[in-house]
Design goal:
Layout (H helix, E strand, L loop, with lengths): L10 E4 L6 H12 L2 E4 H9 L3 H23 L6 E4 L8 H10 L1 E6 L2 H8 L13 H19 L2 E4 L5 H16 L6
Parallel strand pairs: 1-3, 1-4, 2-3, 4-5
Helix pairs in contact: 1-7, 2-3
Length: 183
């Protein structure tokens, strides 16, 4: 294991909402025979309400605290694909935790493609604005350097099918972790 090899065999998917983290994560977990964890789902389970309701009732600060607690609780996991919430990188304390957790992969996509993907989902609390498109563009611009700082590998899913993203990540994971290639 080299210095650039993650200490745990986890793959941590980061990126903006709508970049494909959950979809890719589930399929990648199945292909690699890993367990799949979605941090937002874990927060919902632990708090007992959906993310949008957490934001509405308790605010973003409360949600980010729950997000950090969930991230910290995963540090002993091994052989998991972990899909993180789009804003997890906005907390400085999470950046090092992400890297301790495993190989951090940034899934990104063209802003218009992202908006197209997420505009159909009314459960996105950060899009409950008068101009959701402008909110997406502003958040993407603000978070892009944070995603880049956290990532150890980046893939642009704008023009790739989900299966292509999954196959590419499985191939790269084999290299990163020093696993044998399938016959």
């Amino acid at each position: 294991m080299s210095d650039s090899t993650p200490s745990t065999e986890n793959i941590v998917l980061t990126g903006f909402m709508g970049s494909g983290k959950s979809t890719v994560g589930r399929l990648l977990a199945r292909q690699l025979r890993f367990q799949f964890i979605d941090t937002d789902s874990l927060i919902e389970e632990r708090v007992g309400m959906e993310v949008r309701d957490i934001f509405a009732k308790h605010g973003e600060t409360y949600f980010r605290e729950r997000e950090n607690a969930v991230l910290e609780s995963l540090l002993n996991k091994r052989r998991h694909i972990i899909s993180t919430g789009g804003g997890i990188v906005t907390e400085e304390r999470n950046l090092q935790s992400l890297k301790k957790l495993g190989w951090v992969v940034l899934l990104k996509a063209d802003p218009e493609k992202i908006f197209e993907r997420i505009s159909r989902n009314k459960k996105r609390p950060l899009l409950a604005t008068d101009d959701p498109r402008a909110s997406v563009m502003e958040l993407l611009e603000k978070r892009a350097p944070l995603y880049e700082a956290a990532a150890q590998f980046t893939i642009d899913s704008s023009n790739l099918e989900v299966d292509g993203v999954v196959d590419l990540l499985a191939k790269e994971a084999r290299k990163v972790f020093g696993w044998r290639q399938p016959a």
